[in-house]
Amino acid sequence: MTYNLWIDDLAHDPESPERHAPSGWAVAISSAEAIELIRLFGPPEQVSWDHDLGTLPDGQPDTSMTIINYLIDNHYDHDIIYQVHSQNPIGRANIISKMESWKRSRALQGTTKI
User: Kind and range of the H or E element at 84?
Assistant: First the structure.
């Protein structure tokens, strides 16, 4: 299945329409929801990342880095187009750095073209 994934904890917040997903995109508001979609349907063709996804049940922050690590560990050879819509400048830089590092490491292993 080909799909696009929008990850944002405020994707359903009526007071934050700028955080809503484009029409036709699958939506996850937590790392657990995103990982479940990936488990069910495989890795998405495209992802739009928010960094901060609220708080986990244990009180720790939930972030998109958990999802990226899951993708790297379980779908190492998959190409994913991505964009970052997070307003957190450090989180944005972390997402871009991790995604680009993944792309470079795959190129070095010969699993993708840059």
Answer: strand 81-84
